[in-house]
Amino acid sequence: MRPRRLELREPRSATEWDRLHAIRKTHIFDVYHPPDGPWPCEYDPAHPDDRDSANRPLLLFADDEVAGTLRLDLKPDGRAVIRLVALEPGFRGGGLGAAILELAEGLALDSGARMLCVNAQPGVVGFYARRGFTPGRWEGCTTCPRGVPMAKPLMGGLPIRPEVRPVPAGPHLQRAA
């Protein structure tokens, strides 16, 4: 069932911060960066990037229930970077991925951004491509060989000159048969 009300906002309580961290750890770090994997990385709930005033850790609420999280980093050159995107399994497959991205894009535009960037995992490159993102390296993009830097120009906001360069198509961009 599609939620009647969606809200993307900053956590307002210790309980909400705990949910944000639990979603990130369980659905991003434990999946893509396990200790025994090729790119191990331990999740740090006290990472200073979450306290940087230019970065906005956000929770997605669907009918007042926490459904997912992302962080929107606003750069002085007019870029906005979407990071740490995850939905709880019970909220996947119903259009909330597109909804959280649309809400984040609105926040980016309201903040004056002209370019939206993301480091996509190979399994979601098609999702981002269907929403106007194209593969290309940008300042601060991932150095992880598994990640696929992508960017999307936004209408409105402050003028910038994006430094997005095409990357060669690889197996992560090929459509499944």
Automatic annotation (TrEMBL):
Highest taxon, organism lineage: Bacteria
Segments forming domain N-acetyltransferase: 6-155
Signal peptide: none
InterPro entries reported in the protein's UniProt record: Acyl_CoA_acyltransferase (IPR016181), GNAT_dom (IPR000182)
CDD domains: NAT_SF
PROSITE patterns in the cross-refs: GNAT
Pfam families from the UniProt entry: Acetyltransf_1
Protein known as: N-acetyltransferase domain-containing protein
SUPFAM superfamilies named among the record's database cross-references: Acyl-CoA N-acyltransferases (Nat)
